[in-house]
Amino acid sequence: MTPEDVERERPYLFGIAYRILGTAADAEDVLQEAFLRAREIDDARSPRAVLATIVTRLCIDEVRSARRRREAYVGDWLPEPLLTDAPVSGAPASAAERIADAESVSMAFLVLLESLSPLERAVYVLREVLDLDVGEVAEATGRTEAAVRQLAHRAKEHVTARRRRFPAAPDAQRTMTAAFLGALAHGDVDALAKLFTDDVRIVPDHGGKAKSFVNPIEGADHAARYFVGASRRVREGRYAGTGVPAWIGGAPAFLIVEDGVITSATVLEVVAGPDGAPRVAEVFVVRNPDKLDAIRRGLHYRAG
To answer: What range does the domain containing 10 cover?
Structure first.
């Protein structure tokens, strides 16, 4: 396997690893180890198939050990945010595929995948997200085709049962973001509360390494008051951060920059409400500095 083969498959392999692991740093480590191992393997399969097998098995092992480490994690654990391109509106199939691809690395979707077992997660990513056939998934995971079908069925049922909402269309996400910023600028709690679902949650991830609220904030009114209060502190000069718009996992987001350093990433999960209008269903606030490193380095998710 040549270095060119390895480099060509990097985006595809990173997509597998990031979805299974939920962290860009761990995904990069797995790829590095996989590339080293691939040099010693003589396999008639394509470089992509060989590397995907190595990456998948390394990821399953890493998820198992990571879950043990997370038992000591301080506060809520969220996936590591990763920059993506803004989703595009429009009809071309390639555009629709890019939107679906970005949704599969969204914070909300990765949080949902955390509820699966390591093996179920790997099978779901390969079978349902990347659309590999059963034989390819069996090869990558080292399981029989019958076992893969069982795992895929169980994982799909679990995801379907827990995934109550779906992301709003790109134009609706932009409309919601503009309305959110407008209500925030005016300090209008009532207007802001109407942009949330009734059961909206704001989930913090500080890891005990950054100042943050501790428990998730639940309910539209509480969420609106939290954001208006934070905005007021900025206007009054009690908080020196500057908001910078971004897209993370295909969703609208805001980075807070203090003295040139990114100190937090806030991601809005915008869904289609019961009346068809977009609503913010969940907000993820990542302040753990270790999880902002990929954004600081400008690491960008690209579909492989």
So the answer is: 3-72+107-162
Sequence letter at residue 108: A
Domain with residue 255: its CATH number is 3.10.450.50
124 and 206 co-located in one domain = no
Find out whether 243 and 254 touch, Cβ atoms under 8 Å: yes
- Do 129 and 272 belong to one domain? no
Kind of pairing, strands 217-218 and 196-205? antiparallel
pLDDT score at 89: 59
291 in Cβ contact with 78 (< 8 Å) = yes
Decide if 91 is inside a domain.
no
Burial class (CB in 10 A: 0-12, 13-18, 19+), 146: exposed
What Cα–Cα distance (Å) separates residue 44 from each residue in 23, 50, 210?
A: 31, 9, 49
Can you state the angle between helices 47-70 and 3-21, rounded to 10 degrees?
A: 30
The residue count of the chain comes to 304
Tell me the pTM.
0.89
The answer to the question of residue 244 being in a domain is yes
Instruction: List the CATH number of the domain containing 115.
Output: 1.20.140.160
pLDDT at 40 over 90: no
- The Cα–Cα gap between 167 and 177 comes to 13
Tokens of 232: 């007021």
How does pLDDT run across 1-16, given as a tens digit for each residue? 677 778 888 999 999 9
